[in-house]
Design a protein that fits this description.
By secondary structure, this protein is mainly alpha-helical. The protein is about 40% helix and about 5% strand. The protein has a three-stranded antiparallel sheet with strand order 1-3-2, with helices on one face.
């Protein structure tokens, strides 16, 4: 199964049905060789970013934001051959999304507050001096910025104009 096919499929699926596919693809590409806990941490960063709205309003928009996650960094012709790892990534993605639907105080957060991660033996990002949240496997998770959900905007309907005048 090619990465390009999965990304194409995610584009034609309606939202939010595409999000688990995008999240599983990211978990597979970023952490298929990691423990389930490490995979969950990767999923959590993507979900936290989605909630913030800074990289997009859906998981698919977040993980395909330019140079943020593996789906936009690796060759689209990459064949995802490890079916066992794919199945694990799908399970992790669904479990993470289910847990993330809980109110923030009730979620089982693996890397609380983490907004970024890197395999420091492969990359040295400029933000690597940011506060470290955890190291799981070969990924280090950072709080580069505090992410919180965007504040909802409230639209107030205009009140109908009245013809009565207020007495002075």
């Amino acid at each position: 199964m090619k990465l390009s096919f999965i990304l194409w499929l995610a584009q034609i699926l309606p939202q939010p049905a595409a999000d688990p596919l995008c999240l599983a693809t990211t978990v597979y590409l970023e952490a298929r060789n990691q423990s389930e806990l490490g995979q969950r941490a990767v999923a959590e960063v993507a979900l936290r970013r989605r909630d913030s709205g800074q990289w997009g309003d859906s998981v698919c928009e977040v993980v395909t934001a330019r140079k943020q996650f593996a789906p936009t960094i690796v060759n689209p012709g990459l064949r995802m051959k490890n079916l066992e790892a794919w199945q694990q990534a799908v399970e992790v993605a669904f479990q993470a999304q289910q847990d993330w639907r809980l109110p923030p105080g009730q979620r089982h957060e693996v890397v609380p507050g983490a907004s970024h991660f890197a395999a420091l033996d492969l990359a040295n990002p400029a933000w690597a001096a940011s506060p470290r949240v955890a190291t799981i496997g070969d990924h280090t998770f950072f709080r580069v910025q505090r992410l919180s959900p965007p504040v909802p905007t409230v639209t107030v309907a205009a009140l109908p104009a009245t013809t009565q005048r207020m007495a002075p």
